[in-house]
Predict the 3D structure of the following.
Amino acid sequence: MIKTVLLDLDNTLLNFSASEKKAISKVLSAQNLPCSKDVLKRYSEINDSFWKRLETGEITREQVLSGRFETLFHELHAKTASVAAAREMYEKALSESTDMVSGALELLDTLYKTYDLYIVSNGTAKIQDSRIEKTGIAPFFKDIFISQRIGYNKPSRSFFDACFAKIPHFSREQTVIVGDSMSSDISGGVQSGIHTLWFNPQNEKAKDIVPEYEAKSLSEIPKIISRM
């Protein structure tokens, strides 16, 4: 029986993709750069690749936050674009975003009545703090674990061990992580010996890592967890 539910934040509860698009569009417009669908898509690809390199320990968080703009501006031949200004505007726009994944509030309202809920996020602390506050979801959670404060990033065993140490009466057998990222959430859960539930609305195919459970929509999750 599950007692503890670890929930990823971006693209599991909060709609990071929508917020990202709005934030980078604002940056590109301010820098007088093209804001086409192709450019927006390319930025998203660059950003995702930088975060994945952070997950593996290849680069630092600081390199993520600046490097993604350096790479994009280089590809756009934007020699006069300001990385510092782009970063400041982007982070401010993200911190003010309130986009949520469809059904997220209903999911939290259902789960918190039965389980102890915790956020586990690799996002930048000040941005995540602001988004959590503005969306009003903090009261659903017993605690909020953000990698920048923990000192380790998902999917490392050290991140999860640090979180487990802060959870009263913690039991691996009674814990599940729910998230959209195979490389971060599911991989980390598998390595840490807890149950895994992959939120997969795009119906992607699992490759190297096999999640224990899978949900195409947030509405499926409570019933899946209740059967564990």
